[in-house]
């Protein structure tokens, strides 16, 4: 069995190969702007070495699931499993040497990052007897190893950086060969990129990315201009598994395709304006009110439904209290106790209210809150199928913002004012609006931070600036260091909150 795989041809139409055994020991970095052919290159590499080495693909966009049809890869849907199950699956992947694609496209970005980090960490922590050679391909690696802190939490960033660093720095002794692909070298953590000894650089235009690529390839500034002139599907390759000198590679064809939309032109539909408007608006109200499940449920798994098992347990039957032997005198029958009044059935709003009152609720991700909401609804027998994540976020924001404190005409007036406010800023804006309507002091910055789910004073200042730019509030600075906030559209009433 040959240990060299064909990835394409050079400018002289000579075959360019990658030494697979050397690649397992020295790792690979692929860089290219969107549309440069980066995913095509990864697919070519995976197809050519399929059957020769185990492959594990971290796929945030679901592009590589088609490998399952042609090469027998197992597709693992990250959204269908719990964190504990993801870790257990990774252990079994190493044990049985299965080639898999972990697809994350059904998850939000931060959940994608956490799922991939848990999976990679479990691969790395496998027992020594399972340290078989495997290629671990991470597409869009700048998401999982960011050079700077972004919108993700500090805990998630530490978790994912640790997983990616272990893969690229210490994975070789455990048989893991990292192949990381990124659109922007400047956005990829340097300690992750620096551990690769092989490079395939595609087209890039930004100077900062071009300079980093030239540094990795050992090229001067003038030579680096070649990177800007590369065509789609062309890469500059360098490294012990590819070539000792930079070589231009035209990537060869592939046998499978991605699920992304095509980039070619298609003829537009021939419907005129009225016909197209009818297509867009036909039965629109019915479509909006449709409560059917939009995404097919995952295949059933043998795991036990804990909630169902708990509900199936019969109530504990207490033994009857024994009657003392001395008490043998018959007594008159006691009058029947009046029936207890039936407790009113809980509603979805009641469940949201319970969540809003729980400690630290506003600092939890919306997806985690929504999962908790769905579980509580099932436990209390509350119908919640008609409530999706977007509607739940709005219900939760209204609850913590104090909307339930309003009654009558005030409630209707506030309802109209918040109709077009974005979900992520609704809670703090609503709290200020309710305070002004009820003639109460404005919430201070600490309370606004809690409602916004942040502990950063600078974020609250940016929030107030954003609300003011959108005409939702008016902020006036006082000489005493206090900030006066007024909500337009209501009777004159001012509230103050101390400046940071």
- Average of per-residue pLDDT values: 80
Which bin fits the share of residues in helices?
A: 40-55%
How many DSSP E strands?
A: 14
The CATH homologous superfamily name of the largest domain equals P-loop containing nucleotide triphosphate hydrolases
Overall CATH architecture of the largest domain? 3-Layer(aba) Sandwich
Structural class: alpha/beta
The residue ranges in which pLDDT falls below 50 over 5 or more consecutive positions are: 291-330, 340-344, 492-500
Number of helices: 20
Q: Which strand order spans the largest sheet, edge to edge or round the barrel? A: 2-1-11-10-9-3-8-7-4-6-5
Shape verdict: elongated
Taking the sheet with the most strands, its summary is: 11 strands, mixed
Whole-number tally of structural domains: 2
* Overall radius of gyration: 30 Å
Briefly note the CATH topology name of the largest domain: Rossmann fold
Distance between the termini: 68 Å
Our estimate of the beta-strand percent is: 5-15%
The first-level CATH class name of the largest domain:
Alpha Beta
Domain AAA+ ATPase: 24-191
Region (Disordered): 320-347
Protein name: DUF87 domain-containing protein
Biased composition (Pro residues): 332-342
Features:
HerA-like; 2 domains; alpha/beta; P-loop_NTPase; disordered C terminus; 500 residues; 11-stranded mixed β-sheet; Rossmann fold; 41% helix
Explain what this protein looks like in three dimensions.
This protein is α/β, with parallel strands linked by helices and 500 residues long. The chain folds into 2 domains: 4-251, P-loop containing nucleotide triphosphate hydrolases (Rossmann fold), CATH 3.40.50.300; 348-498, no CATH class. It has 20 helices and 14 strands. It has helices at residues 20-26, 38-49, 67-71, 83-96, 109-124, 141-144, 154-170, 190-193, 207-217, 221-229, 273-281, 284-288, 306-312, 348-357, 366-380, 389-401, 408-417, 423-437, 445-452, 457-469; strands spanning 4-9, 15-19, 28-31, 54-59, 74-77, 100-103, 134-138, 176-182, 198-201, 234-239, 243-251, 474-477, 482-486, 495-498. Strands 2-1-11-10-9-3-8-7-4-6-5 form an 11-stranded mixed sheet. A 3-stranded antiparallel sheet has the order 12-13-14, with helices on one face. A hairpin with a 3-residue loop joins strand 10 (234-239) and strand 11 (243-251). Helix 4 packs across helix 5, helix 16 packs parallel to helix 18 and helix 18 packs antiparallel against helix 19 (445-452). The radius of gyration is 30 Å and the shape is elongated. The protein starts with a strand and ends with a strand. This is DUF87 domain-containing protein. InterPro entries: AAA+_ATPase (IPR003593), HerA-like (IPR008571), HerA_central (IPR002789), P-loop_NTPase (IPR027417).
């Amino acid at each position: 069995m040959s240990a060299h795989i064909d990835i394409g041809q050079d400018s002289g139409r000579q075959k360019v190969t990658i030494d697979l055994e050397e690649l397992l020991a020295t790792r690979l970095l692929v860089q290219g702007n969107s549309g440069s052919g980066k995913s095509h290159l990864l697919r070519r590499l995976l197809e050519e070495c399929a059957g020769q080495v185990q492959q594990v693909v971290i796929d945030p966009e679901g592009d590589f699931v088609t490998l399952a049809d042609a090469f027998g890869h197992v597709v693992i849907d990250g959204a269908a499993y719990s964190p504990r199950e993801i870790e257990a699956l990774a252990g079994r992947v190493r044990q049985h040497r299965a080639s898999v694609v972990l697809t994350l496209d059904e998850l939000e970005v931060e959940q994608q990052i956490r799922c991939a980090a848990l999976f990679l960490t479990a691969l790395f922590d496998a027992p020594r007897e399972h340290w078989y050679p495997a290629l671990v391909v991470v597409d869009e690696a700048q998401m999982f190893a960011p050079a700077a802190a972004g919108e993700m939490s500090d805990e998630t960033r530490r978790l994912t950086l640790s997983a990616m660093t272990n893969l690229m720095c210490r994975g070789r002794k455990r048989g893991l060969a990292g192949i990381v692909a990124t659109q922007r070298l400047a956005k990829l953590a340097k300690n992750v990129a620096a551990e690769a000894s092989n490079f395939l650089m595609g087209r890039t235009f930004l100077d900062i990315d071009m300079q980093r690529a030239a540094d990795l390839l050992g090229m001067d500034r003038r030579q680096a201009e070649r990177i800007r002139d590369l065509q789609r599907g062309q890469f500059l390759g360098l490294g012990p598994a590819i070539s000792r000198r930079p070589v231009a590679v035209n990537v060869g064809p592939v046998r499978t395709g991605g699920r992304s939309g095509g980039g070619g032109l298609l003829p537009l539909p021939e419907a005129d304006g009225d016909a197209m408007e009818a297509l867009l608006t036909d039965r629109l109200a019915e479509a909006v009110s449709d409560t059917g499940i939009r995404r097919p449920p995952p295949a059933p798994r043998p795991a036990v439904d804990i909630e169902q098992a708990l509900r199936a347990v019969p109530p504990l039957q207490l033994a009857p209290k024994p009657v003392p032997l001395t008490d043998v005198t018959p007594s008159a029958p006691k009058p029947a106790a009046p029936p207890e009044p039936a407790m009113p059935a809980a509603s979805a709003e009641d469940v949201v209210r319970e969540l809003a009152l729980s400690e630290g609720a506003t600092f939890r991700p919306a997806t985690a809150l929504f999962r908790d909401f769905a579980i509580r609804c099932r436990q209390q027998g509350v119908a919640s199928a008609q409530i999706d994540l977007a509607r739940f976020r709005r219900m939760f924001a209204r609850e913590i913002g104090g909307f339930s404190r309003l009654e009558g005409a005030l409630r209707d007036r506030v309802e109209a004012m918040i109709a077009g406010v974005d979900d992520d800023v609704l809670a703090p804006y609503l709290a200020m609006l309710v305070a002004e309507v009820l003639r109460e002091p404005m919430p201070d910055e600490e309370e606004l931070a809690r409602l916004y789910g942040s502990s950063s004073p600078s974020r609250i200042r940016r929030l107030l600036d954003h609300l003011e730019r959108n005409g939702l509030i008016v902020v006036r600075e006082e000489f005493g260091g206090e900030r006066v906030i007024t909500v337009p559209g209501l009777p004159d009433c001012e509230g103050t909150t101390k400046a940071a």
